[in-house]
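Bumping with the actual sequence this time:
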Amino acid sequence: MFRLILIVGFGGFLGTVARFLSSRYIQNHFLSAFPYGTFLVNILGCFLIGLFYGMSEKGNLMNSDWRMFFTVGFCGGFTTFSTFANENMSLLRDGNFFFFALYTSLSVFLGLLATYIGNLLTKIF
């Protein structure tokens, strides 16, 4: 069990650092009230988790330790629901109702679509 905790923890550490750097880089290049950084990181994370679960379902491409490292650890640290919720509250508080509706609906729809596509790619290739 301790070994699994270390595997997930190390994946989470790498995912968190990757999220911080990616989100900051993206947000610095798209100056807007719309939270592009978190949005794009979360959609990419959804794609990756679909890809990783699909790879693990193929049998010999990924063992259970790697699946836990990538899905629970890396993707869990890379994506962030709490930041998504906080940014939505900020958009509402600032009266940006259009961006609130756009961010929420696109995040849910594109997140599910990205997860599906990531998983589908493992079935094709």
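The tokens above came from a reply further down the thread. The chain has one domain: 2-124.
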